[in-house]
Design brief:
The chain has about 325 residues and is mostly helical. About 80% of the residues lie in helices and about 0% in strands.
């Protein structure tokens, strides 16, 4: 027992030290943060996957406190808090041997929860609204585009049309903040898992295997959600700016993006199933990106009619 306790304390101290050093390097050498940020959860995740919850929470708190003291003060505290908690959740899911979907959802939830806490702390304590500042930067870019058009002496009708497009883009950007936040959270969770799970496997931890992207299959219930949102959009037509309008707009964006991922995975599936070179997959993905609306229709058809079954000749009876 004393030996196990000593080993637990030694490993905890090592992981806290590594976490603090990584955070300090990313804080004081900004260019390194592009790479180091994605492996910040690794030390806490490794420890949390090997030891019980109480020890893991203690190491997480110690990592946050030490990072505040020697890793960059208040500048490093939000980052330390977010990535230490993400590491704790990821490691705990691995220790409990949860499946890949649960790990992804738990990691996404940890990212969203910690971001929400940091966001409200910034608003209440420092009076800094991160989301509003991001929107303001977008509006400034729109204003710059507007001024460039005015300076180029374009015809009045073209300028008026351009003004309407910019106004629509400004409103849409404001309305779509919730869905953009969801996309960002899911994207960050995916990258963190893609980077850290292979590293944790190399560190002799048992990690679940994620199927290749071409086998991605959304629940068929997504079809019902999509059609319900579509019917409300066509027949109810909520007034612009209302809560229902914003909710429908965000749900529509999220569902369209999910269906686009389904369609893109089908394209990957078809190319690889037919034995084409992997380079064709890259080219097809690049070509598909500007046509996500069309790709989402492909995903919709795939969910409804099992196109993969037709490709492999194994359709459902």
């Amino acid at each position: 027992m004393p030996e196990n306790r000593t080993r637990r304390l030694t490993h905890g101290a090592m992981m806290v030290a590594i976490f603090t050093v990584l955070l300090a390097v990313s804080t004081y050498i900004p260019l390194t943060s592009i790479l180091i940020t994605w492996v910040l959860p690794l030390p806490i995740a490794w420890y949390s996957a090997k030891y019980n919850m109480s020890s893991s929470v203690a190491v997480t708190i110690a990592g946050i406190m030490l990072s505040f003291i020697v890793g960059g003060g208040f500048l490093a505290l939000p980052v330390a808090f977010m990535y230490a908690v993400i590491g704790l959740v990821l490691g705990t899911m691995l220790r409990l041997k949860k499946n890949k979907a649960t790990i992804f959802l738990a990691t996404s939830g940890a990212i969203l929860a910690t971001f929400a806490i940091v966001y409200f702390a910034f608003v209440k304590i420092l009076n800094i609204n991160i989301i509003q500042q991001t929107l303001d930067l977008s509006m400034q870019s729109f204003d710059t585009s507007r001024k460039m058009m005015e300076a180029s002496n374009v015809p009045a009708d073209q300028l008026a049309s351009f003004e309407k497009q910019l106004e629509l883009m400004e409103k849409t950007a404001t309305y779509l903040v919730p869905s953009l936040l969801v996309f960002a959270v899911l994207g960050i969770a995916f990258i963190i898992l893609a980077v850290n799970l292979p590293l944790l496997k190399r560190l002799k931890l048992e990690v679940p295997k994620f199927k290749p992207f071409r086998y991605m299959q959304l629940p068929r219930s997504i079809l019902w959600y999509y059609f319900i949102v579509l019917i409300i959009s066509l027949f109810v037509r909520p007034e612009e700016g209302t809560y229902l309008y914003v909710a429908i707009l965000n749900l529509s964006s999220i569902l369209t993006m999910l269906l686009a991922l389904q369609g893109l995975s089908l394209i990957h599936f078809f190319i690889l199933e037919k034995g084409m070179p992997k380079g064709v997959v890259v080219i097809a993905t690049i070509i598909a990106l500007p046509f996500l609306q069309f790709v989402s229709l492909i995903g919709l058809v795939d969910l409804g009619f099992n196109i993969r079954g037709f490709i492999t000749g194994e359709t459902k009876k």
